Amino acid sequence: MMPARSQTSLIDRLPSVRGRYEEDAPLAKLTWFRVGGPVDVLFHPADEQDLQLFMSEKPVDVPVTVLGVGSNMLVRDGGIRGVAIRLGRAFGQIDVEGLTLTAGAGATDISVAAAARDAGIAGLEFLRGVPGTIGGAVRMNAGAYGVDMNDITVSVRAIDSKGRCQEFSRDALGFSYRHCAVSEDWIFTSATLQGRMGNREEIAERMDAIQAEREETQPLRTPTGGSTFKNPDGAKAWELIEKAGCRGLRRGGAMVSEKHCNFLINTGDASAADLEGLGEEIRRRVLEETGITLEWEIHRLGEGSDNSNGPRLKAVTS
């Protein structure tokens, strides 16, 4: 006979939903870095209404974290407490009308760029070079090649901590460099974007050129989280990192990419502590060398583990 639980588990306190709950769910497989501990409960909502119900009925003391495809985040080794919400296929719909596209927050940026190309809509090609989902792109005003979400966003739908849905106009989003002013309590569920009339072949050529440049200059075949640090005013993060002598620097299984030194990579056995510790060492060296403090672009989530002290840093000369 199984002994009775001494206390109610978190999953037993959560509302009944049409989506799916996973208890003690591993997150490393869901992040591009392939590191990190588990989350207490992973929730896959069935649709926007299911997410609204969850937010309106969940206990107020339960923290919530929103996950996309894990491209721009570092989950610490101790994992995430509370509930992580995974906006997957149910939020991946893309609808095209005229020169506008309405995409679910779980739609990948690459899929949105492709849908715009197929519809002959120009101006969204830069999304081919942005890893992640539309929800994450809005949250950080993602951009590349001189264009960002502020240039193409018409409006965004979002749900607050009490399950109420609201639409934000572009001006209400308060976009600035790699930042959106809407409180983190709001969960973006979809975005309406607008481009301009274009030629499909020319759009496809620009997208192919963007992908070719990424393949040439970024470590796309190695577990990474994308650009690690924001570009400071009037400077490029990678140039500062290069100047501080950090290209190829290692900590445990974490390494500063030789190909693009604003990328950290997992060479195979890195921990989240290795990667975060390496990032902090880069910040220290850049500050010492240039007087500039780099700001993290990658979102670091969760708790560290008790045994997260990694090996000492070393430079690579080969």
What is the topology?
Elements: H1 10-13, E1 20-26, E2 38-44, H2 48-57, E3 64-67, E4 73-75, E5 80-86, E6 94-97, E7 100-104, H3 109-118, E8 121-122, H4 134-139, E9 143-144, E10 147-148, E11 153-159, E12 165-169, H5 170-173, E13 187-194, E14 196-197, H6 200-217, E15 224-227, H7 237-243, E16 250-251, E17 254-256, E18 263-266, H8 272-290, E19 299-301
Parallel strand pairs: 2-5, 3-5, 4-19
Antiparallel strand pairs: 1-2, 6-7, 7-13, 8-14, 9-10, 11-12, 11-13, 15-18, 16-17, 17-18
Our count of domains comes out at 3
Helix % is 10-25%
User: Measured on Cα atoms, how large is the radius of gyration?
Assistant: 20 Å
CATH architect. name of the largest domain: 2-Layer Sandwich
What is the average of the pLDDT values? 92
- Give the strand line-up of the largest sheet: 6-7-13-11-12
> Which range does the strand content fall in?
25-35%
Low-confidence blocks of residues = 1-6, 308-318
The ordered H/E elements are HEEHEEEEEHEHEEEEHEEHEHEEEHE
N-to-C terminal Cα separation, in Å?
Answer: 60 Å
Q: Return the CATH class of the largest domain.
A: Alpha Beta
* CATH topology descriptor of the largest domain: Uridine Diphospho-n-acetylenolpyruvylglucosamine Reductase, domain 3
Structure description:
This protein is of the alpha+beta class and 318 residues long. The protein has three domains: 10-89, Uridine Diphospho-n-acetylenolpyruvylglucosamine Reductase, domain 2; 94-207, Uridine Diphospho-n-acetylenolpyruvylglucosamine Reductase, domain 3, CATH 3.30.465.10; 220-301, Alpha-Beta Complex (Uridine Diphospho-n-acetylenolpyruvylglucosamine Reductase, domain 1), CATH 3.90.78.10. The protein contains eight helices and 19 strands. It has helices spanning 10-13, 48-57, 109-118, 134-139, 170-173, 200-217, 237-243, 272-290; strands at residues 20-26, 38-44, 64-67, 73-75, 80-86, 94-97, 100-104, 121-122, 143-144, 147-148, 153-159, 165-169, 187-194, 196-197, 224-227, 250-251, 254-256, 263-266, 299-301. The strands form six sheets. Strands 6-7-13-11-12 form a five-stranded antiparallel β-sheet. A four-stranded mixed β-sheet has the order 1-2-5-3, with no helix packed on it. A hairpin with a 2-residue loop joins strand 16 (250-251) and strand 17. The longest helix is centred in the C-terminal third of the chain and has 19 residues, at 272-290. It is globular. It starts with 9 loop residues before the first helix and ends in a 17-residue tail after the last strand.
